[in-house]
Design brief:
Reg_chr_condens, RCC1-like domain-containing protein, mainly beta, globular, Methylamine Dehydrogenase, Chain H, 0% helix, four-stranded antiparallel beta sheet, guanyl-nucleotide exchange factor activity, 446 residues
């Protein structure tokens, strides 16, 4: 990454630009998924019966890739001369590559083909692209010729790929508040895809700013990376921070899906109930007490107990949960309208216009949306995909990552439109640090 590792920001998003114009505190991405809690298969073993999740499957519908937002760090993939797109713009070089899925990191992106191959573009300072060549245009990832990928996730300086065989490959590095932490105990920066040993039958992955979650078919969750904000679900002693880069169990079972925010983590159990751990300074981990700044181990989000959750993801300091019936709830930091509620403090609470520490700590339903089938969270903006194939965006607007053509924050969900997608149905969304990526198909071809 172009920016160095940062501690979790408590400043206004508009005040976190570096001298180069990069917004350092917003580099992350979150994954989108139309996940529905699966029917778990009971399998007998010597110790009795257990639950087994189905293997992960690659998406099959092919679309064209479109980007919008700020691209001064190559994240748009439109060439060195195009560093800003206020409305969705087609990444033409990928049009013939049969792209079925996308992932956006802080400053880099991945596109997955129907054949299980990856294309990458964006910042390559820590080898997150797993290839040589021009960063400003998509090119094939190298080193995965003998495997087929079903899902990919991007963090700030790391990329994670899940294969058909349930194996996990990673490349790049983790960062901490002090700088580069390392990819593993043996490599500071991993230039080529490397298999993660000790993990088998993985069915889901998720990434935060500098940590990774993996879910196995037995419903167990493993975490690794930087653990300074308890996002690993275990305590990492500061003088032995490298211990965090080795995957270890979070200690929970019966899980059907994982999700992550920049410095916090989520798990959804087989009944659609949620657990969270990590940084909670704005209530983004689901504890609405202002006194609880860290949640060290996986804990139930009690305020969502009455809902059946099928996906939950986070941005830098806010979180969005998607219910089985297509409603969404927001909680966490709200000063740039990350939650899309139209207000930045709890109703009845006096609004201090000068405060950059505004939060809605209790999960609150976001109104004014059709039935939603998937979500993806950028650093301080949110994307929601409706069942009809429309994208809605809201949150921090200065980087144009909401796709509405305006530089102001977007207070409530607004449908993303543009000449290049006016006759298209969107099938995937991915929110990055300063940009967004969508995958769409032409309605004329349907």
């Amino acid at each position: 990454m172009a920016a160095t590792g940062l501690t979790p920001s408590t400043e206004s998003p508009a005040a976190t630009k570096s001298a180069t114009g990069a917004v350092q505190s917003k580099k992350r991405t979150r994954n989108s998924s139309g996940f529905v809690a699966p029917n778990l298969k009971k399998t007998k073993s010597a110790g009795g019966s257990s639950l087994e999740l189905p293997v992960a499957e690659r998406a099959t519908e092919v679309g064209k890739v479109y980007v919008f937002g700020t691209g001064d760090c190559a994240q748009l993939g439109l060439g060195e001369d195009i560093t800003l797109r206020k409305k969705p713009a087609n990444v033409a070089v990928l049009n013939d590559q049969n792209i079925v899925d996308i992932s956006a990191g802080g400053l880099h992106n991945m596109a997955l083909t129907s054949e299980g191959k990856l294309w990458s573009w964006g910042v390559n300072d820590q080898k997150t692209l797993a290839r040589s060549g021009d960063e400003y245009v998509p090119l094939p990832v190298e080193g995965l010729e003998d495997v087929k990928v079903v899902k990919v996730a991007c963090s700030d300086s790391m990329t994670v790929a899940l294969t058909e065989e349930g194996q996990v490959y990673t490349w790049g590095t983790f960062r901490s508040a002090e700088g580069i932490l390392g990819h593993s105990k043996s490599a500071e920066v991993q230039e080529a895809p490397s298999i993660v040993s000790g993990l088998e039958k993985v069915v889901d992955i998720a990434t935060g700013t500098d940590h990774v979650l993996a879910l196995t078919s037995s419903g167990r969750v493993y975490s690794w990376g930087n653990g300074q904000q308890m996002q690993l679900g275990r305590r990492i002693v500061s003088r032995r921070m490298l211990n965090g880069v080795t995957p270890e169990s979070v200690g929970i079972k019966g899980i059907a899906k994982v999700g992550a925010g920049s410095y916090h983590s989520f798990a959804i159990d087989k009944d659609g109930k949620t657990l969270a751990w990590g940084l909670n300074t704005y209530g983004q981990s689901g504890d609405d007490s202002a006194k609880v700044e860290l949640i060290p181990t996986a804990s139930p989000i009690k305020s969502l107990a009455d809902e059946t959750i099928v996906d939950i993801q986070g941005g830098e300091h806010h979180s969005i949960a998607l219910t089985k019936d297509g409603r969404i709830f927001g909680f966490g930091r709200s000063d740039s309208h990350q939650l899309g509620l139209g207000y930045t403090v709890e109703p009845g609470v006096e609004d201090d216009k000068t405060s950059h520490k505004k939060a809605i700590r209790h999960p609150t339903e976001i109104k004014g949306l059709p039935k939603i089938k998937s979500i993806s969270i950028g650093g301080n903006h949110t994307l929601a995909l409706s069942e009809d194939g429309d994208v809605y965006a809201w949150g921090f607007g200065e980087m144009y990552a909401c796709g509405n053509g305006e530089e102001e924050d977007v207070e409530t969900p607004q449908k993303v439109s543009g000449q290049q997608i006016q006759d298209s149905r969107v099938i995937k969304v991915a929110g990055g640090g300063q940009h967004s990526v969508i995958l769409a198909v032409s309605k004329k071809q349907e």
